[in-house]
Write a structure and sequence with these properties.
CATH class: Alpha Beta
Mean pLDDT: 90
Helix content: 40-55%
Strand content: 5-15%
CATH superfamily: Metalloproteases ("zincins"), catalytic domain
Radius of gyration: 15 Å
Structural class: alpha/beta
CATH topology: Collagenase (Catalytic Domain)
Low-confidence stretches: 1-6, 157-163
Strand order of the largest sheet: 1-2-4-3
Largest sheet: 4 strands, mixed
CATH architecture: 3-Layer(aba) Sandwich
Number of strands: 4
């Protein structure tokens, strides 16, 4: 695992991230280290943009054809493992709203989005149920090493409850 994350660039475009998280860069690097410890392909450089809904909406429209904000976007470089993995962007307002809606700490949800984005950079996706289950289990395992509770636990419980 890489202990020197100089190649992990963190750009704080929206200062609300720094205010809300304190040390956003430290959280990002902790997420990168945790991901690389469990998924070796995540052991490479990346760039993380802490941004806002307006920027993510623009990126989502330009690169995915969806004219709406989203919580996280990943842009894989396609380079081999250990090289620069790609770019991640996360939206402040959407992250804050989702955390409030789910009743979880903002910092924990931000960590989840960073880990989620990193896994997309190394090829994981959630388009099919089986792939989503694999990705979610890996996210949960990585987040647990950071002291973050399973972000899917309540959703899974709701699935099991009678309607």
């Amino acid at each position: 695992m890489v202990d020197d994350f100089r190649a992990f660039d963190v750009i704080i475009e929206d200062e609300r991230w720094a205010i809300e998280l304190g040390d956003a860069e430290r959280l990002a690097r902790a997420c990168a280290r945790a991901a690389a410890a469990i998924e070796p392909r995540a052991d490479g450089g990346a760039a993380l943009l802490f941004s806002d809904d307006e920027t993510l909406r623009d990126l989502n429209r330009r690169f995915r054809g969806k004219d709406k904000p989203t919580n996280v976007l990943s842009f894989p470089s396609g380079a081999p493992a250990g090289a620069f993995l790609g770019d991640i962007a996360i939206a402040f307002e959407t992250c804050r709203a989702e955390a409030a809606e789910q009743g979880i700490a903002f910092r924990d949800h931000a960590a989840h989005l960073i880990v989620h984005g990193l896994l997309h950079l190394v090829g994981y996706d959630h388009e099919e149920d089986e792939a989503a289950n694999v990705m979610e289990r890996l996210e949960t395992q990585i987040l647990a090493t950071l002291g973050v509770l399973d972000p899917y636990a309540d959703r899974d419980k709701r699935r099991e409850e009678p309607r």
